[in-house]
Input
Amino acid sequence: MTQSQRSRERIRGRYAPSPTGDLHLGNLRTAVLAYLFAHSGDGLNDGPGELLYRIEDLDRSRVRHGVADRQRADLEALGLVFDPPLVVQSERTDAYREALQSLAGKTFECFCSRREIAEAASAPHGSPGRYPGTCRDLTEAERAERRRTRQPAIRLLADREPLTVIDLVYGEVTGIPDDIVLQRNDGTPAYHLAVVLDDAESGVNQVVRGDDLLGSAISQAYLARLLGRQVPNYAHVPLALNAEGNRLAKRDGAVTPADLAARGVGPAEVLTMIAVSLDLAADAEPVDLETLRARFDPERLPRYPWIVTG
Ligand code: GLU
Output
């Protein structure tokens, strides 16, 4: 699809938290941005659009009981409204398995542990953050041998051709796809496969998320194409950091709505804090999402992280 055809489409964004812990101010800010991008037009498409909600709960060992409901309630308390359908990843494992089967011949079994990958990637000439290629070219006999001691993960046998995606914050981003994991070695469908398939099947054409995921966009776009799906536009937005410059976390003090409420800071004040951080409100100015939507200009989104001191 060309960009001009794309520009006539209605925007369909999504917010897709993992219910592994309460949302903090940085997560809430990303959700507000996903809403503003979806509903204000993004320079390529005209608003108003839709914003879907997806619960990314495939990693059962990290999912915490009750968190999914609290996340949704915290977002709704800010005034965020989501459009149907609600997608719950743990209910879609058959679809992920089918997609994986359709990629037969374009995947390989990987027996590496996390540690082996980290060591190979950090060795001289290694590429940190990328799969070092260790298991790409194993012979059938080598694979059979390794299967005796370790269940394989399934990785994408990616081309080494550069690919470009459009990011509404970073501009055109070009990179070489990585051999991303499609199925973990415990048989669980992996994050990349689930995200790409869900976005495609829900008609998502705009992905707004934290810029820690920028490095995944090229590989995910590559996978979408391989599955014969439309590649969305992206907007990777700056993260919230703590005073030391590390990614904000719950241990950084009063950074979740529950912690803030205990200090007398309610959802209206939280929305103001977020709006101030985005240069969309004056200090302590009461705002609502409609006001922010009218003021929001993707071109003027601050390009630097939000430093939060809890
Ligand atoms: N579930 C992921 C997270 O909470 C977001 C994935 C995505 O937006 O692609 O970090």
In short: The pocket of glutamic acid is lined by residues 16-18, 56, 195, 209, 213 (CB under 6 Å). The first strand starts at residue 12 and ends at 15. The two ends are 45 Å apart (CA to CA).
